[in-house]
Structure formats: C-alpha cells, structure tokens
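Cross-check.
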Amino acid sequence: MRLTNFSDYALRVLMYAAAQRERLITIEETAQIYDISRNHLMKVVNVLTRAGYLKAVRGRTGGFTLARRPDRIRIGAVLRLTEPDFALVECFSANNHCLIAPTCRLRGVLREALAAFVAVLDRHTLGDLLLHPENFGLQPAA
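Predicted model, tokenized:
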C-alpha cells in the first residue's frame, strides 16, 4: 500500500506547524523546507484548514498554525480525510470486474490487514510525532 503525495504532504505540513507552535508559518516557507510545489501545498493547507486542523490568517503578515492541540489530531483521521480511498485491490472498488471476487478469500484477509493498519494510525496523534525546529534545519529562536 502506498499513500498519496497529498496525504504525505498533509502530514508533513501538520508536523511542521506543530514544531512552530509559537508563530504563523507560510506556504512559501513550508514549500521551501520540504522542496514541494507551492501550488500543491496551497491545496493541502486549504483542505486541512476547512477540516479544522489548521487555522489560517489572511493578509500580508498572515500564514497558518495548528487549530487544535497536536494530541487532538489523530493520524488515522487525517488520512481518512486526505486519501481518496483505501481500495488496495480491484475487488475493494465499486468498479470491480474480477472474475473470482464472489469466492475469493484474499479479499477478507486484505480487509483485515487494512483494518489493522487504520487501527494503528488511529491510536497515534500528531503529538506522538512532534519534532523541534532544528529537525527541519532551522535555527532555534533566540
């Protein structure tokens, strides 16, 4: 299984915002830190803001910050928001054309594995992933 870049970037944005709790951060700054497209990050930040994970401040001196405490942001919930689906194989999708799907036993095993994967993510919060600004190559504030 592979998460989409969108989910990866969403988690990275949240981790960076959590490390910068005392100040607003910008999309430009975040794009530069991670060497990610500014336009793509704008979409990610927009989704996270609409979902209530980030709080945006408009204007010339604006930016964004976490809208919730890191220990209140469940990793599983973020991924359910950002992943388009968890269709590991064709038979998980509505457009299934697999000949053996009605009798296949692999489907049940994969559902169980996916449920375990999501259950682990639901047990962890952004608070479990906290880093320091130095971890991002930044100098600590004086």
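The two ends are 43 Å apart (CA to CA). The mean pLDDT is 92. Passed to J.P. for a second look.
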